[in-house]
Write a structure and sequence with these properties.
single chain; 7-stranded parallel sheet; globular; binds flavin-adenine dinucleotide
């Protein structure tokens, strides 16, 4: 398998810049590439995306492959899988990393199938085996109750990486890189879907997945009004509000705020978990948080098993006291 060389990052854009997940992937890709003494490539697929090549180089890429075609304006599975399959077959990277985003979740397994390899989803750690030089991806298993490290002998070795588990490098504007354009040559007949309309949902404040502080509420909050207190604390800490499934199902908060197996994955520096039990379907997607602080009236609640700090008590008493202390500290 000597012909497979280099570490490739699938780049995503957000608001005319590289998405934070892409700069994070470039940071961890750089380390892996240096360890393998190979190059780091970034791939940009889309329409009018050439303006992002400089940013990709500044964040660590040695080469940027660009597939720029009007047919790639919107993400569509058919066209993006075809474009990426073409790039990977031409470049033959040893490792291909994508974000654990809606695009990465869709692309990675489809590419793996087409390329006759495997994809490791939702990885939280990546290393190189010093002897075999194989990628060793680590991911949560059993609903986040354990972690497993895998090895795959097929190439390219594909992994999707959870947001916020790997820091980006400081951008270096003086870094030089090569830009290589690849023709998409997409046969329109191969694209079976049409985008009829786009509806964007505005999120007030910081996006949950990108927040360094998340205040999450559970069923024990009891109402939409209760969540206003969580919002106050989140705003003070420049963070975002999240929720377990019951508050979303009950319409207390929009379903965009759901954290868990069927919701968002978060890995903030601080997760304040209020009146939620810590069911495995929730924990699996917040276990990457650096510090979990739990407030629950039940001392046996599962959330205390993963929390660094815990307060046993009624949130209606604990949270206002906590919020007013935060206000006092911020004012001083
Ligand atoms: C296929 C599948 C997918 C799922 N996906 C998700 C998912 O993505 N995200 C998710 O969150 N769940 C998901 N669930 C649901 C999950 O199993 C749990 O039911 C859910 O996480 C429980 O939410 P909770 O902790 O808010 O509620 P509960 O388990 O009911 O816990 C409420 C907690 O609040 C505490 N409490 C109550 N009142 C107070 C008070 N006044 N002060 C302090 N503490 C108080 C209680 O002690 C209790 O611990 C999924 C389930 C399935 C089957």
């Amino acid at each position: 398998m000597a012909e497979y060389k280099g570490v490739m990052i699938y780049g995503e854009a957000a608001q005319g810049k590289l998405a934070p997940i892409t700069t994070e992937l470039l940071g961890c890709g750089r380390k892996l590439a240096d360890e393998l003494e190979q190059e780091l490539y970034s791939v940009l697929v889309g329409s009018n995306i050439s303006s992002l090549t400089g940013e990709a180089v500044a964040f660590g890429a040695d080469k940027v492959y660009v597939v720029d075609d009007p047919l790639l304006e919107d993400y569509r599975t058919d066209s993006y899988v075809l474009a990426m399959e073409r790039v990977v077959k031409q470049v033959m990277p040893q490792i291909l990393l994508l974000g654990q985003t809606s695009i990465g979740r869709d692309l990675a397994p489809r590419l793996a199938f087409r390329l006759g390899t495997a994809a490791f989803m939702d990885c939280i750690e990546l290393a190189i085996d010093p002897d075999s030089k194989l990628l060793l991806p680590t991911r949560p298993i059993y609903g986040g109750n354990a972690q497993a490290t895998f090895a795959c002998e097929f190439y390219p070795q594909i992994a999707t990486v959870r947001a916020k588990v790997m820091p980006p490098l400081e951008p270096d504007a003086s870094k030089q890189g090569e830009v290589i354009n690849i023709e998409a040559n997409l046969p329109p007949s191969a694209i079976r879907t049409k985008v009829l309309d786009k509806v964007s949902r505005e999120v007030e404040g910081i996006r949950l997945e990108e927040a360094w502080v998340v205040v999450g509420g559970g069923r024990g909050i009891g109402s939409a009004d209760g969540f206003k207190q969580l919002q106050e604390l989140a705003k003070l800490l420049k963070g975002a509000v999240g929720a377990t499934r019951p508050p979303c199902d009950n319409g207390w908060v929009p379903d965009l705020l759901q954290i868990g197996l069927t919701g968002k994955i978060i890995a903030p520096d601080l997760y304040i978990a209020v009146a939620l039990s810590g069911a495995s379907q929730h924990i699996t997607s917040c276990s990457g948080s650096k510090n979990i602080v739990a407030i629950n009236k039940d001392p046996e609640a599962n959330i205390f098993r993963v929390a660094r700090f815990g307060v046993v008590g009624d949130w209606k008493r604990v949270l206002p006291a906590f919020t007013s202390k935060v206000k006092e500290l911020l004012a001083s």
